[in-house]
Each structure stands twice: as C-alpha cells, then as structure tokens.
Amino acid sequence: MLVSPSDAVAGGRRIDVAGPIVRSGGSSTLRAAAARVGSLTMFGVIPAGLTIYLYAAGGHAFAYDFDRAFWPAGRDVLHGFTPYVDPTSPDVARGVAFIFPAVAALLLAPFALLGRTTADHVFAALNVAAALLTLRALDVRDWRLYGFVLICPAVVYGWHLANVTMPIVLGVAAVWRWRDRQVVAGLLIALLVSVKLFVWPLGVWLLATRRYAAFAWAVGASVALNVASWMVLGFDEIARFQAVLGAFTRVKDQDGYSLIAIASDLGAGRNTAYALMMVVAGLLAAWCVRLGRAGRERCAMAACVALCLAASPIVWLPYFALLIVPLAIVRPRLSAVWWLPLPMWACPIVDPAEWQLVIALASAAALVGITPRPARRASSSSPPGPAAGPSLLVPNPRSVRST
User: Fold this and answer.
1) Of 105, 125, 108, which Cα lies nearest the Cα of 166?
2) Which of 162, 290, 362, 403 could connect to 63 by a Cys-Cys bridge, CB 3.0–4.6 Å?
C-alpha cells in the first residue's frame, strides 16, 4: 500500500515530511510578496501621492519662478513690450527678473495665451513630465527609478518652482541619446545653449569626443536661431538683456552653491573668486577633453556636467538635477549611488550656511566621481532584478525658489 509522506510513520509516531517544506515555501512566498508590496509602496504609491498632493495643493512657492518671471515675460512679448526690467528694478534683488535670451522669451510667449494660474499648472506638469522623460531618453528600464528620481531634492525643487531646469536636463539627456546623429545633436545643443548658456560645456564635450560635424551644426544653428530671435524681439533689446543679466549676477552670485559663493564665504574678493572659478573650469574642461580623446565618452559626459556647474557664477539647488544624466547613463538600475543626492534635503535653494554648502558639494562631488565607474555585472547565478514596470511617479518637496 502506498503511503503519502505526510502519513509516514516511524516507531508508531507520525512524521510530517511535507509540512516543513510547505511552511518554508510559504514563508519565502510571503517574504517575496511583502517585498513587492513594499517596493510598490515606496517607489510607486507614496511618490505618486506626494506628487499629486504637491501639484494640487499649490501654495505660495508653487510655480514661483514661472509665475513671477516667465509668464510676465511671455505676456510682455505678446503685447510688444520688453521682457527685461531695468537693472535697478526691485525684481532683480528679489530674484524674479527675467534674465534669459530672446529664444527663451519667444518660447514662453504661447504660455501667456493661457490664464496665469492655468499656465502655472501646465508648465509645472511639463516639468514633472520632463523629469520622467529624462530617464526614458536614457533608456532606464528600472521602474523604481521613475519614482525615486522625484524624491531627489533638486528635481522636486525644480518642478515645483517650475523653472527651466528640468527641460534643460531632458535636453541634455536627449543629446546623449542621439549623440551619434550629428545634425540632431547639434540642433539640440544649439537650442539648449540659446535658452540657457549654462550648458555651453556641451560644445566642449562634442569636441572632446571628436563630433566635429555636430559641433559645427551647434554653432551654426545657435547663431541663426539667436539672430532670428533677436530680430523678432528687437536688436535694441540685447543691451537691456545684458544689463539686467549683469545686475542679477552681481546681486545673486554669492547666494547659492557656485564656486563664487564658496570663495566669497571663505573671505575671497570678487576678482579672486572669479579667477578661481576660471581655473577650476579650465581644469575640468581639460579633464573632459582628455577623457573624450581616450574614448571614455561616459566619463567625459560626467566631466562636462561638472564643468556646467563649476563654470556658472550662479548655481542654485535645482541645478544639481543635471547630475541625473551621467548617473542614469552608468547606473540605469536602482543602487546605493542613487541615494547620494538625498542629503541635499538639508539644504535650502539659496543662501546656504557653510555646513549646507559642504553637504551639497560633497554629494555632487561624490556623484561626479562615482558615476563614471560602471556597476559590476551580476553573475549568471545572481537572480534577475525587478523587470521594467509602469513609471509610477514620486516626490517629496519643500518650497523655496530658484531660476
């Protein structure tokens, strides 16, 4: 007679053979289910809920940059007025003066066709989309990162204040995606630099990686685009733009996370601070070229991003969102490196204390130093990571301002 394992007996005592195996398997299944629920909650439900809450709640800081600088500039352009205030305007000291070139002013004009509040929400939503599309452009397939990225303080501040940071980050990601299509890469860089000169080191990266045709397209398209834009806005507006930009820089270059601000905090004079900035920028440019010539284009991109931050006289917290690009290129799956930006939650957007400067710059330096090193390949015996899934959103904000 056949006896099932659970009915097996020995010495008159019943032996439960299958029980422990079943219990062990059930425990493993429960742990796996708990891990899945925890992952969905951490990187999906909570982030999505926070994003929706912050977006719907509005508040004083919601779309601050767009509402106070960008929308008025677009409205002025539509009505035939100058978008640039006088250098002595209180808007300069308040940090809400429009300080972007003609290309940006013309691109913002259509938003002024919408009501101010509606336009605020539309532009903020576009910023959230830009953050997620940045990862998509970089071919990130780990769905957890689509939630995690919006926890990063630089990203949260960027979309919540609705400035041009996240669209610029998306543009840099697009440059990387289409880097081998010379015309596309050149035109993208021309547009990015024409909107915000902050990303001019992308031209250095093109030269470093021997993409000469793309560089030629970038220069030619940039000249054509700016000439056409200033023709529409009026060439006499160039002087007003330069005046307000210069005044804004003089007032705000010591308020953020730039090398100018660091040197000033250490007691250096303005001339010394700018000299330091140029020296560091020169060294980073040389590093970028060296890496590019050695065929290490990912490392060269990390150096290029570092150069963008180092060569700008004004750096506010949202600017660090640019570090997502080299990080996602090398680490397209969630790993410990992705947690490095989170200490920046201790930092304000502007006017950081010295210890906050240290936190922000240490996090940024660690990212620049680590991201060029590819993660180790998992062994064949390692279990596969989570498959790409739905891009559930996320954030966790606070409010302040930046341009």
Assistant:
1) 125
2) 162
Query: Which positions ≥6 away from 88 have C-beta within 8 Å?
Result: 247
The confidence band for 67, taking pLDDT boundaries of 50, 70 and 90, is very high
In this predicted structure, the answer to whether residue 379 has a pLDDT above a threshold of 50 is no
14 sits in which H/E element: strand 13-14
State the Cα–Cα distance between residues 26 and 73, nearest whole angstrom: 62
Place of tokens 């926890």: 151
**133 with 125: CB under 8 angstroms?**
no
In the numeric block, the tokens 């002013």 are attached to 105
CA dihedral of residues 135, 138, 140, 144 (deg, nearest 10): -20
Please provide the distance, in angstroms rounded to a whole number, between the alpha carbons at the two ends of the chain.
83
Q: Would you state the pLDDT for residue 27?
A: 74
Helical (H) or strand (E) element with 9: strand 9-10
Residue owning tokens 């509606």: 118
Q: Is the pLDDT of residue 322 over 70?
A: yes
DSSP 320: G
Q: Which DSSP symbol is given to 42?
A: I
List, as own/partner pairs, every contact residues 296-301 make where C-beta atoms lie below 8 angstroms and the sequence separation is at least 24, other chains included: 296/372, 297/179, 297/209, 298/326, 298/329, 298/330, 298/372, 298/374, 299/372, 300/205, 300/208, 300/209, 301/176, 301/205, 301/325, 301/326, 301/329
Q: What is the pLDDT of residues 381-392, one digit of tens each?
A: 333 333 333 332
Average the pLDDT over each of 225-239, 273-287, 387-401 and give the range with the smallest value.
387-401
The model's pTM is 0.85
354, amino acid identity? E
How many whole angstroms separate alpha carbon 341 and alpha carbon 323?
Answer: 9
Residue 192 CB neighbours (<10 A): 26
pLDDT at 327 over 50: yes
On whether the CB atoms of residues 171 and 192 are closer than 8 A, the answer is: yes
Band of residue 150 on the pLDDT scale cut at 50, 70, 90? confident
What pLDDT is recorded for position 179?
96
Sign of the alpha-carbon dihedral angle for 50, 318, 249, 76: negative
